[in-house]
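User: I'm writing a tutorial on reading structure tokens. Could you give me a worked example: one chain, its sequence, then its tokens, then a sentence or two explaining what the tokens reveal?
Assistant: Sure. Here is the example chain.
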Amino acid sequence: MHAVMIIAHNQFELLKKLILALDDERNDIFIHIDAKVKDFDFNLFKNLTKYSKVYFTERVNVTWGDFSQVKAEMTLLSAAVNNESKGRKYSYFHLISGCDLPIKSNDEIHAFFEKNSGKEFIHFSSIEVSDSSITRIKYYHFFRNKRTFFRKLLSYSILQFEKLARVNRLKKYNITTVQKGCNWFSITGGFARYIVQNMSKWESVFRYSYCADEVFVQTILVNSPFKDNLYMPNCNNNHLACARLIDWERGNPYVFRKEDFDLIKSSPAMFARKFSLDVDSEIVDMILNSNIKTGDN
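And here are its predicted structure tokens:
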């Protein structure tokens, strides 16, 4: 079985389509809805599926650049791993957003990860990590959740003092290497359990961080017993390392359109982002219909 973990804060009609596309007895679906969202119909979404079980996690008020981004991922991972005590057992844990889609059928996705069993699908931006990426967790970054002028000034002043004082909180936690990459991943059950079993440590490491969602799983992996299990060890910014199709050349990232259909379906990736029903709803239906034709329920 697989645990599919979804972070969503808008595009809830697209989220419906995503959940239905993942509806398979081999998938359990875990969803985090941003705490800022009001009037979300949880009962409607819980009753969408015929085969998958749908679980909603505790809600985090997510702010860009703040630890809350990592906290939402931690919440999903903890919920999925802890669900295994109910007799469920997941070979893979996938983190996707509510604006992503599977671009292969469920049969193809499960066959792909079974073929590559034991491999960690994690993206790295480059082999060498910049000092600015390391400082995201090397120093304490305060007041990230509410950025007023005064709080920005105070945070900057504290950071300069930390640099002068040679603060390095990574030493405290025996973290020798920092890595950075895409925050969407597909990891083995073994690695997911390793993260959750040491969650109190990771909370301490990544609390008071800056944009740590891009160094969270990467840094844990390269400092863990799972570091030699990468699907693509020298990916150097190739998103196929995490089995994703993401276009950063045409956008931030680019929102796919119907003219991209052949490109999407010819990709060896399992998931793609991102999509928007407001920008182009046709491409969403084209992909989902093509997945059904290749053998899904």
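What the tokens reveal: Residues 256 and 275 are 6 Å apart (CA to CA). The mean pLDDT is 92.
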